[in-house]
Task: structure prediction
Amino acid sequence: MNIFQRTAFLDSWKKYLVGSTKWQFCATTLNEKCFYSTKQRIGKKKTLYSFRASLENEYFKFLESIQEKEKMFAPGQLVINLGSSPGIWNNVASQHIGSEGRVVSVDIIPSRSPANCSTIQGNFLSMAIQDEVVKAGLRARKLQEASAQYGDPSSVPYLQLAIEHEAAMENQESLLKELRADVVISDLNRPFPMVQGFEFCISKTPYLAMRNRELLTVKDHMNSLFLAQSALIFSLRGLKPSGTFLCKVVDGPNLPSLLEDLTMSFSKVTKHNMKGVFEKENSVVYLCSGKISTPPIELLNV
Result:
């Protein structure tokens, strides 16, 4: 990178700071070469870190405000997190469910997980990945039951329990009914911008795949709506009666169809608008509590 390229980069960064499209800009920074010996590169790295940290901090505060109002997490719960990267939902849920609870998360992009969280890297729309999510949730549920029986969690023969339960598993439909998750979270949207470091090295390829591949990228309202509908179908089969479902979806003209499905399936639906949380964020969060019963899939607007 010569002096003219560096100057152009700094100019584009200044334009970004005053309000240009953040997602496109951060995607281009992933393809830049690393020159850690220059002041410009060090300054860029620090700015990216601070930008990512500020986003995570604002998002964490927003999620904690929902938890404070709705009380959707409780100690000992089993939480399924669809679209977990960069792991903020995992941190919020794990703090409130305690050591007796369990979070099972899935995402194409790997993320750091708390002690009471299991993470599966893969595409949630794949039936094989859904099977793995359900099996991980069932193992966590069986471990909770065994812990209650043995008293001390450290004395539970976990490996033997997992092998025996794996042999008893049948098809996915019966597994979903047996799952009985307390909370299902769906944040299947555009990934957070990335920064350099170890996380960058292990996440760059899946991150670029999500941004560039036609079948993985979330470009508009319809893509987001399709993912939310897929998560809804999964939650209706995997949630326990009176369970809670939270989904984040890009706002748009077809949102009433999703709202109709949610009100048909849950006794209470609360809307949380994210426009005031992030600049240029056009997403809506629906918190649905009190699962009534699983409606026939043909009645949903899928």
About this structure: Residues 39-70 form the longest helix (32 residues). The domain at 73-299 is CATH 3.40.50.150 (Rossmann fold). The mean pLDDT is 72.
